[in-house]
């Protein structure tokens, strides 16, 4: 691809994302779940036919992927790079201010999914603790590696470090958190940590938003295993009202 074709490609993708309904569709898929065109039409607040047209354009530009299972058709983000680009645009899209006051709804700000890994206050606190304790070590490639003690920590969680190292993706890297404006842990290691937290019921995931709820068990385990002090927050046993959950879905910049 020559320079002119590259410029045209960038402008086409930027124009596709810039359309408000498409922005809502893409952001709603950042939790890693696949959804039907009917569900996405409701999220974008457009008709079914309009949503289908938007999805066709997003698919044409390789921003979403179509999954066909029998008579059912589902859409998901094409890959993690699309989610990373959206997260970066959320950061760029905010006006600079003398002091930073997050506008993300409280539950999403505290803990949410960032495609396949954890984001929000909880994830940033864990990231900072792992750096402080020397479990995560910087490399020269904007990436992390685990120290010996870090390997012991993650292997103690049942995470196979050697297996993660063989995957065709970055092992561990900083991912700028939109609400906190500081990095959380991304890459294969970040995805494995979220998978483990959900499997062990340390956090529970909303079905209709990106929000993660910290359970009482999760608070205990994160505090004891990572020695991180967590702020008081609504737990999974005390779900937020349905109105606030719907509001979170209606706000694509969460």
Q: In words, what does this structure look like?
A:
This protein has 254 residues and is of the alpha+beta class. It has 2 domains: 3-78, Arc Repressor Mutant, subunit A (Orthogonal Bundle), CATH 1.10.10.10; 86-250, no CATH class. Helices cover 48% and strands 15% of the residues. The chain contains 12 helices and 10 strands. 31% of the residues are buried.
Distance between the termini: 35 Å
**How many strands in all?**
10
Assembly type: single chain
Count helical runs. Answer: 12
Uncertain parts: 95-103, 237-254
**Percentage of β-strand residues:** 5-15%
H/E order of the elements? HHHHEEHHEEHEEHHEEHEEHH
Helix content: 40-55%
Number of domains: 2
The outline comes out as globular
Q: Order of strands across the biggest sheet?
A: 1-2
Output mean pLDDT. Answer: 82
Structural class: alpha+beta
Radius of gyration: 19 Å
Tell me the major beta sheet: 2 strands, antiparallel
Please render the helix and strand layout as text.
Elements: H1 3-18, H2 20-28, H3 37-44, H4 48-60, E1 64-69, E2 72-77, H5 80-92, H6 106-110, E3 112-114, E4 117-119, H7 121-132, E5 136-138, E6 144-146, H8 148-155, H9 161-165, E7 173-176, E8 183-186, H10 187-199, E9 203-205, E10 212-214, H11 216-226, H12 242-250
Antiparallel strand pairs: 1-2, 3-4, 5-6, 7-8, 9-10
Helix pairs in contact: 2-3, 3-4
